[in-house]
Amino acid sequence: MLIQDDMPKYEQAYYTLINRLKSNxxxxxxxxxxxxxxxxQFSMSRVTIRHALDMLVQDGYVESRRGSGYTVLTLxxxxxxxxxxxxxxxxxxxxxxxxxxxxxxxLIKGNATKNLIPPTLKGVDVTMITRVRMVDNKPRMLVIxxxxxxxxxxxxxxxxxxxxxxxxxxxxxSNRFNLNWSSACExxxxxxxxxxxxxxxxxxxxxxxxxxxxxxxxQKGKTxxxxxxxxxxxxxxxxxxxxxxxxxxxxxxxL
Length: 255
Known about the structure:
Layout: H1 9-22, H2 35-42, H3 46-58, E1 62-65, E2 69-72, H4 86-92, E3 97-107, E4 126-135, E5 138-148, H5 169-176, E6 183-192, H6 195-201, E7 208-217, E8 223-231
Antiparallel strand pairs: 1-2, 3-4, 4-5, 5-8, 6-7, 7-8
Helix pairs in contact: 1-3, 2-3
């Protein structure tokens, strides 16, 4: 996000802190500098800095605890359940998430691979990325991400880290490939593990497993990516009558 001089000072501080979060200056689980330190760094009043930090809390990036300051919760807060970062959630819970890239495949429209292309992406060439997500070295999820190949050009193994906050697919799509989305829809269904799923997740073929499908859209309603997630554990949800609307979904970051 380019900081403009005509912005209110609290917005300048807010977006500066967002840029720092996005560049991993403040990793998940770390503490942001104190209000006093930030006020000195930014040459602003503590009241202005507190306003900016309150905005970060409201938007889901950080949490505030009395006596502990502000702690980073996630670098990818989401307004939709399926766009919540699994990586950040595990790091916050004190676990060690990791990823294993299985394959990067091009699905060309009109040839024998077309049946693998999700319905929402029919009619375009698609790049399919298959990864296994692990927690403390134990396989937890098989994740298959589909995106129009025009959006993911020259994707290679180096683009998909196996450790650290950068392994989040949301961060990879946003930071590496500049994909932006504003909404998503999700569906969940029970399925039976096929040979591929059972082999990668260390379970028996035919065992029941949850399939989560997530379609992310841009502001015009065009599909940006689709993701299939197969989980061999439970899924829980917190329902609220209020939805968080990101202040930055229309903004462009300059890192």
